[in-house]
Amino acid sequence: MKVHGKAYRSIWPLEAGKTVGIIDQTCLPHRFVEVELRTLEDAAVSIKDMWVRGAPLIGATAAFGVALEMARDPSDASLDNAWEVLHATRPTAINLRWALNDMRSCLSQLPLEQRADAAWQRAIEISDEDVACNESIGKHGLKLIEEIAAQKSPGDTINILTHCNAGWLATVDWGTATSPIYHAHNKGLKVHVWVDETRPRNQGAGLTAWELGEHGVPHTLLVDNAGGHLMQHGMVDLCIVGTDRTTAHGDVCNKIGTYLKALAAHDNGVPFYVALPSSTIDWTVADGLKEIPIEERGGEEVAWISGETAAGDVEKVRICPPETPLSNFAFDVTPSKYVTALITERGVCAASKVGLAGLFPERANAT
Ligand code: MRU
What we know:
Layout: E1 2-3, E2 6-7, E3 11-15, E4 19-23, E5 34-37, H1 40-48, H2 55-72, H3 76-87, H4 94-107, H5 112-150, E6 158-162, H6 178-186, E7 191-196, H7 203-215, E8 219-222, H8 227-232, E9 238-241, E10 245-247, E11 252-255, H9 258-268, E12 272-275, E13 281-282, H10 288-291, H11 300-303, E14 304-308, E15 314-318, E16 331-334, E17 341-344, E18 347-349, H12 353-359, H13 361-364
Parallel strand pairs: 6-7, 6-9, 7-8, 9-12, 10-13, 12-17
Antiparallel strand pairs: 1-2, 3-4, 4-5, 10-11, 11-16, 14-15, 17-18
Helix pairs in contact: 1-2, 2-3, 2-4, 2-5, 3-4, 4-5, 5-6
The structure holds 5-S-methyl-1-O-phosphono-5-thio-D-ribulose (MRU).
The site of 5-S-methyl-1-O-phosphono-5-thio-D-ribulose (MRU) has 17 residues, from helix 2 and strand 11.
């Protein structure tokens, strides 16, 4: 996607085995800051401290983290250590484990002297594959938006609600939930996006609103609790969200608050779609509610809110008494019964074991 007219991905190789470029997403929307990762530790910190975030981008960054480490020390011990260090950064997005397992199985079979080049090459491929998957998700999702447009009067706006940031910043490019939206907008469909602010880190306000604005997609920011009201009043034609981990049975774990949007959509007959590359499916998990580890983050994210002052300085302010006890669950699970369909790179399917197995028989049968 373009930023100030220049094409960007959210992560890009700079010098083979030495440096990787990323955007420090903690600075958006106030500043656009590029950062160079040079070591395994840099990659781990960038994921843990959320300079990069979003399930597919976490996976791609981990792959590059392994590649940086292989250039320093390609031994088995170093490969295992890189896997552990990166895997410990964040618990919920399955793309992290997926990318690390992919890198390890590709590298562990090779002689040491070939590992650095192969790791760099494979990390680039993982990034490119993510872009291709998301572009394909966009094409499949576009058909769903077109179907909804066909039910409306010509010239009517199609209102789409999204939660958190499942945009190009959360992937390597295109985004998952935003890819159908970008495809529809690029094709000239009159789309408008309701953007949930997504407390406490405000990925909707800071990232999704910024992305859509850069691309010229009409959108409106709203507080997290407003979605249900909009749906009750016919102001949402469909919801599209991303996911950090989808079970083999179609349960969807995504940013906290997704479940409440799905409930409101169900109650109001609004289609609720989840867009995902297959790297986000955890084929080993059957019951999303019981088996997916939900990240619990520090309470300071709830107590303190950061923003730009009228003078252009970025400042933090506390919004509750200093002694207030705090809770900060970062994700929730939406049971498959509330998901209208999953949009994947291979097509649209029911959020169920049968639906997923129909599109990915080789994976479903292997587990
Ligand atoms: O905590 P974050 O910002 O990493 O959470 C991101 C999300 O919840 C996204 O919706 C999800 O990773 C899907 S990204 C295509």
